[in-house]
Amino acid sequence: MINSFQWLTRGVDMPGLDFDMVERWIVQVAHNHGRIVGELSYIFCDDPEILNVNRQFLNHDYFTDIITFDTTRGKMIGGDMFISLDTVRTNAEAVGEPYWRELHRVIVHGVLHLCGINDKGPGEREIMETHENEALALISDKL
């Protein structure tokens, strides 16, 4: 299925996003990277839930803003993305960004991973940040 989005919550209220705009934006970002959006699920949660997911599936014992489970096949990106709204808020405050801008950065961060952009190796974090900033520039007037 092409362009199928699910927006879910676990233990938190659904953030007040313009989901139609966000979906169009994600499709544009994927297109800019030569990809097509398939089935994407976003699960907004709190810190205890993201820690549980991190421990259960990745054997990591720390908080994070997003965990992306990749089901991409060829050029069609797909996956489940868990986003801790607690960590997004903490990170926004730490870097002096508005919460909504940081939330959009995290949303697109998962998409960029699905497009094949990594951020763990030498120099990769800077490459990811460049792509995040390019994506955010597409909607900066709406944030």
State the main characteristics.
143 residues; 5 helices; alpha/beta; 4 strands; Collagenase (Catalytic Domain)
Short synopsis of the structure:
With 143 residues, the protein is of the alpha/beta class. The protein contains 5 helices and 4 strands; from the N terminus they run βαβαββααα.
Description:
It is a single chain. With 143 residues, the chain is an alpha/beta fold. The protein has one domain: Metalloproteases ("zincins"), catalytic domain (Collagenase (Catalytic Domain)). It has helices spanning 19-32, 47-58, 85-95, 99-114, 124-137; strands at 4-10, 36-45, 66-70, 76-84. A four-stranded mixed beta sheet has the order 1-2-4-3, sandwiched between helices. Strand 1, helix 1 and strand 2 form a beta-alpha-beta unit. Helix 3 packs across helix 4 (99-114). The mean pLDDT is 95.
- As a whole number of angstroms, the C-alpha radius of gyration is 14 Å
Give the SSE string.
Answer: EHEHEEHHH
Structural class: alpha/beta
Number of extended strands: 4
Number of helices, where a helix is a run of at least 4 consecutive DSSP H or I residues: 5
CATH superfamily: Metalloproteases ("zincins"), catalytic domain
Share in β-strands: 15-25%
Mean pLDDT: 95
Under CATH at level 1, the class stands as Alpha Beta
Write the layout of secondary structure elements.
Layout: E1 4-10, H1 19-32, E2 36-45, H2 47-58, E3 66-70, E4 76-84, H3 85-95, H4 99-114, H5 124-137
